[in-house]
Write a structure and sequence with these properties.
The chain is α/β, with parallel strands linked by helices and about 350 residues long. It is built from 15 helices and 10 strands. It has a 6-stranded parallel sheet with strand order 1-8-5-4-2-3, sandwiched between helices. A two-stranded antiparallel sheet has the order 6-7. A two-stranded antiparallel ribbon has the order 9-10. A hairpin with a 2-residue loop joins strand 6 and strand 7. Helix 11 crosses helix 14 and helix 12 crosses helix 15.
């Protein structure tokens, strides 16, 4: 992974060995307008080599993957071509999958343009798309040729997108150490969003770099999620269910927000099942509510949420719902099975807190 303020140099280095007419760019309707101009002059890519897909989780589908494949076929891409994925986590997930499966695999380069993409989605080699309302149900592991982090792209984001990425940074801190959690808790993300001074920008970049380091260390230790990497799923079993539920009911929820709400519920499960300290539980809930507010869902929807969780890819059977939970901050336990009744209790705690 390259973290750079000179994206021109990084791009020239990464494309130096690829024929210019074999470089293709995947963008969405947002990044085409706000981010493509930043790299377009460096690469001098013709319009016909730019594939633009609709933005948003609602379009993270097989139909969009087929659109990318069709584009590559029509433009004569080969296994020696390079696909540059310029966008957030939805785009890098789909672009990575499309490239990894096109002609049994072509190289791809990730340039995440959202905070969520930088600290989470674009790193680690997970690719895929949603299927029949289930998050990331189809996918594979395939590492990009490289991931280029250029934090200037953060200036193109609205506050909700910044907070979405910050939610994953909170998760990285929770599974890492009390020291990391203290650093994240002390950072005034609203100040960074609304009135960023040089000092705040420097501090934010340091926190982003450390968050990326936490994820990279975990991924390199367990690239195919057979053990330690499952810690990155903290907050995601319930979070993904909330995200899928919201999308199905026409009220999309940003991924980072869903993970935050999922973490609140799963911290409650951690307290219930493993004795996660009450004081720490309340402190973290206060931090999350300060920025993300309250999320509500009617009790009559609990069974629907649990059905979604029972299809979570981390489960070993549909009769059990499996979680990564915390004994304390930085002290995790994998493979914790919770009953539907326990999950409903955690949902009550989330929606009533």
């Amino acid at each position: 992974m390259i973290i750079t303020s000179d994206i021109d140099l990084a791009l020239r280095e990464q494309t130096a060995l690829v024929a210019q007419d074999q470089v293709f760019i995947l963008v969405d309707t947002n990044t085409r307008q706000h981010c493509l101009p930043i790299i377009e002059q460096t690469l001098a890519i013709p319009d016909e080599h730019i594939c633009c897909i609709p933005a948003g989780e609602a379009h993270k589908t097989l139909q969009t993957i087929e659109q990318i494949w069709q584009f590559l076929i029509e433009q004569g891409a080969t296994r020696k071509s390079l696909l540059i994925n310029l966008g957030g986590g939805v785009l890098t997930d789909m672009g990575g999958f499309a490239a990894a499966t096109y002609m049994r695999g072509m190289p791809f380069l990730n340039i995440p343009t959202t905070l969520l993409g930088m600290v989470d989605a674009a790193a680690g080699g997970k690719t895929g798309f949603d299927y029949h309302g289930l998050k990331n149900q189809i996918g594979l592991f395939r590492m990009p040729q490289e991931t280029i982090i250029h934090t200037a792209f953060l200036q193109t984001l609205d506050p909700h997108q910044i907070l979405s990425g910050f939610g994953e940074m909170i998760k990285h801190a929770l599974i890492s150490s009390p020291l990391e959690l203290a650093a994240i808790s002390a950072f005034d993300i609203e100040q960074f969003i609304n009135r960023p001074s040089g000092e705040y920008i420097e501090e934010a970049h340091e926190l982003i770099s450390r968050s990326i380091d936490i994820k990279n260390y975990i991924v390199e230790s367990d690239p195919e999620e057979t053990g330690m990497r499952q810690t990155l799923n903290f907050g995601h079993t319930i979070g993904h269910a909330l995200e899928a539920y919201a999308l199905q009911h026409g009220e999309p929820l940003l991924h980072g927000y869903a993970v935050v709400y999922g973490m609140i519920a799963e911290l409650y499960l951690s307290h219930l099942k493993l004795g996660f300290p009450e004081r720490d539980l309340q402190q973290v809930i206060h931090l999350m509510k300060q920025y993300y507010g309250k999320y509500t869902c009617p009790c009559k929807s609990y069974d629907e949420l649990i059905t979604i969780m029972q299809h979570d890819k981390k489960n070993t059977s549909q009769q059990e719902i499996t979680f990564t939970l915390l004994r304390t901050v930085g002290n995790y336990r994998l493979g914790c099975v919770c009953t539907p009744e326990e999950v409903k209790e955690a949902l009550d705690a989330l929606f009533n807190c």
